[in-house]
Amino acid sequence: MSPRNARPQPQRSSPQEPQPRPADFINRELSWLDFNTRVLEEGLNPDNPLLERLNFLSIVSSNLDEFFMVRVGGLRQGASSAPDASGMGSRELLAEIARRTQSMIARQTRCLTGELLPQLAQREVSRIDPASLGGEEFAAAERFFREELFPALTPVAVESEGRFPMVPGLTLHLAFRLRKSEQSKDQLLALVPMPRGFHRLFQIPTPGGVRFVLVEDLVRFFAQSLFEGYAVLEAVSFRVTRNADQALDDEESDDLLEAMEEVLRARKLGDPVRLEVESRASPELLERLCQAFGIDAQEQLYKIDGPLDLRGLAPLASLELKSLRFPRFESQPVPAFEDASSPFEAIRAGDVLVHLPYESFNPTLELLRAAAEDPGVVAIKQTLYRTSPDSRVIAALERAALNGKQVTALVELKARFDEARNISWASRLAEAGAQVIYGVVGLKTHAKLLLIVRREADGIRRYLHLSTGNYNEVTARRYEDLQLFTCDGELGTDASNFFNAVTGYSEPRDWRRLMVAPTGLREQLGELIDREIARSTPEAPGRIILKMNSLADPDMVARLYRASQRGVKITLCVRGICCLRPGVRGLSQNIEVLSVVDRFLEHSRIYYFGNAGQEEVYLASADFMPRNLDRRLELAFPLRSEQHRARVVEMLRTLLADLRRAWRLKPDGSWERCAAKPGEPAPRAQATFMEQALNQAEESRVKRLSVFRPQGPGSAPGVNH
Amino acid sequence: MEAAPTALQVQRAAVIDIGSSAIRMEIAQRNASGAIEILESLQRAVPLGRDCFAKNRLETRTINLAVEVLRGFQRILQPYDVKAIRTVATSAVREAGNQELFVERIFMSTGLSVEVLTGAEEDRLLYAAVSEAFRADGLSAEDALIVEQGAGSLELAAIRGGEVVASGSRPLGTLRLASAVGADGKSPAESLDLMRRFVGAALDNVEHTYPLAETPALVILGADARFAAEQLLGHGDQRRIRPIGRAEFLRFATSIGKKRPAELSQRYGLPFEDCQSVGPALLTYAELLKRTPAQTVLVAMASMRDGLLLDLMSERSVARQKELDAQTYASAENLGRRYQFDEAHAHRVADLACALFDALGAEHGLSRRERRLLRVGALLHDVGLFISSNSHHKHGEYIVNASEIFGVRASDKSVVGCLVRYHRRALPQATHASYSALTREDRAVVSKLAALLRVADALDRGHSQAVQLVTAQLGPEELVIKVAGEGDLALERLAVRAKGDLFEEVFGRKVSLQRAQLSQAEPLP
After folding, report:
1. Nearest-CA distance B137 → chain A (Å)
2. Which residues, at least 6 apart from A290, have a Cβ–Cβ distance to it below 8 Å?
3. Is residue B9 scored above 50 in pLDDT?
4. Number of Cβ pairs closer than 8 Å across A and B?
5. Whether A721 is catalytic
6. B269: closest chain A residue by CA
7. Three-state secondary structure call for residue A514
8. What is the pLDDT of residues B21-41, one digit of tens each?
9. DSSP-derived 3-state class of residue A504
10. Where does residue B407 fall: left (phi above 0), alpha (psi -120 to 50 degrees), or beta otherwise?
């Protein structure tokens, strides 16, 4: 697939249709900030356990980091200086972003220092000031500093007129203002980056409770030993965020791997877009830092009255302290696979739909593992976008290649911020004999697809795993996704053709069941929306329900407005960015927009069309964003089993009925929490899904126990029966 | 020529089609219900046609690209362990001055032997694919004109009463069309107009063979036709035969014709290669449609490759096979009529030859294909008389070689040519160029079939159909042929003695002619 034929001009609605005006769109950056605010609200929400709240705060920070690097970076570069669909110019927008993020960070910090840390301290999880340590504890901290931290510290002096040293993005630093001696007036600035490879938290070995010191506090406290002969006047932590929106110039590069390494280097050196400094910093130090990084003190400087970079506090959130965490939940086994002797048998018996993380990711791993060893399997092809470190997925593929199977891995090197990780295992797979394709020039591979070709007695059968989520066993426990296991022949042919297209053996062909971006998905979604309009009558209005992470594509928004104007009832469940303005008379009064932000990250994409009673349900990897529909390889696949469609519809119903973790977008563009009327039940969708999964697993366990199953020949005698 | 594997053995098959603008492959298997299921479809653009039509030869660079593409296809093919692979090439390779070099290069680099199809063979395959598509949709194609415009040529097949009555290939491919008209410096409207006139002139010519005004249905196929169907009928349509209303189709063809390729690529996300062909192709279909009374144009989701797969894989019913054979014989008879052959004699010789073939099945070990070739050769054995009775077997050979017979592929046509050549006079010899050009297997086939044909021809020596075959029995010493009929058989005996020479050489038996007892006088079916 080449990008040249990959960008069909959006099928504009016919000329007599009025086009939406800028005011009909919500600005996408501001809508993203609203999303991050909803995450922050969960950090502030006293209904959540303390460590989970801390985790939400940490997510807010890591989200913001990415936002500044990519979005703000891009805006500053003037790359997107033309106003977006909402008509906002980049200058105006940057000012608004600064205003909102300042307030967001202030709330976040207040929550941390004013609520969470004090409340945690009461529950024996305490942040300790090194100065208050005594006896054994002090000795341990001092030993840790001297023996481990100190050798890793590399202070750099900055001459007052000299060039400023290189400060890599996102790395926490301490800035020390020093004076040569008591008498001297000469001042000196020294920068100390917090060393890589150390946790942000030093846990003091102590019986009972958790007591921790922040690494920067430790360094600050023992700083004197770094600067013999100097007086420390001031020690302040700061962090620079750099523009990372370096477009990978893959049109020019023959070797994506090489080009990618280039970008990884550049990411550390992009122009600074944000400077965070502890608010205790003196005006002269602030001025010096702003000047050094070319930071506009009005718009780009964030003074924070507490610890910086809350990503570093995330490890606290995984402490095994039951009372401070969400109740433990284990992903439940999938009955269809439990009852079958092999994953192949299970899939042959019928398509299997799995809802992560309520149901387990294990069948996927088990299918891969079985495929790697099964003598009938002749080929395995898979897309890999973001996978976890030490992935069992990679291990299985490696094993399959070593077993002589044809293994093709389409590895996406452009998965943002995961590139370093991807490059290393990609080389490992290639060494095992797999064919590793580093993405498609001009397109990011976002589709999630696994194809297993197996020779069976009655011919070739292809087993497919299609998913809305990545092949990542770690996120599979935290992200909500849907996966379909099938051996449908038509989908199999589409899958083969998909891989042939992305590996360059063939040009994209006509798809039988799949909808594929950038070759047709946008067009076909348009057709589906238009069909809904055509079938809509005042008595039986059309019905569209879409669930996705982001809705920002102006053309799709315009189409949905048109459907609303023609009477189609539309419900959108959009977790993140939503540029569509719902509930506006004459424009979108038939559209409602909800967003669920809860314990698990809502990640599945579902497209539902009422189709005059013949419901159609598609699952997809694609959001409605220009980048997804035009510049990425994305897949949408239909659910062909009526039972699966009914299950997904029920899922949507549950989600849309949430009154505990759901938000509603108002016509003015603001979000409000959905709440139950007093005295009425307040359902929480994710809790319902957990409960259902537990019940279902229990039911099938009971059913299995009630059936005597003869032991197969050659199997070991049972132990725990 | 290796014998085609019988249908029952083929579980998986692949066909590779080396066309004028792309190389395509389909991998298929027979599924549990016996139907042919496509496993993979591949396509890569390789501009063989561009070379061939501009320079009359394929450039090394393009051949190298073809090799690379085929090697990629082989990689995809490898895990499937496919034994039945058929690789064919159409007009670009067919017309290239360095065709042999190309075929040789592909064989050396990939081990694939490329079979260069004749236009007629292409048409037969198209027809087989289209009628299969009609059948799949519960329809039938009784009277229709089937058209596919490729990059190199325009393929036409006219169907009357379910039979192919005329088929052929015109050098009116989209590439040729575009280069003939030339787009430089013209506005889209000007180019459209010019192209319309060009196509119009070419179709005047087509009308001589295909009376378009009497064509009730127009069936179009190929990527450009599919594009039209998808745009006008949407992507969800699962039918194999998709009708588009006349007015709607004409409007669409004009609107596409007015756009430049770059615009089409932008607007529809089409691959650039397709953008160059879609305008000219739809225009040609539109001009054809205008000349017919058809109210719809039928887009068939079928391709020549489907026809090839049917050939390789289908568990073809006897009835279906007979149907196809009948089309081939009808086409041979049409050819014979054009050269004013003695129809009654031709039929009688053909029947006799086939009866001998069937009676000697255990001895000659030949299959259905050879029987078909024998019948075609027998029907045409005397066409050379049109030129001159002297050496009419030689005239007949070149007439056959220069003609197209529906369902007879190029290599088979050489066999038929040789049959005509050896129905009289000199026996096959290595010094005869056309005979020595055959594969070793086909040389043996020609010898055996010509031996039968000569005997059959002798049995109707008087061109009077006086003799009917009753039995033919092969003994250790001689072939005893018992016949019924009037007269004393003296003429026939004489002829059999003279023309039994090849039979004796090939089968090691003399031929003896006897009158059958009355009780035996039930003619063979």
Report:
1. 17
2. A275, A296, A297, A301
3. no
4. 88
5. no
6. A8
7. coil
8. 899 999 999 887 878 889 999
9. coil
10. left
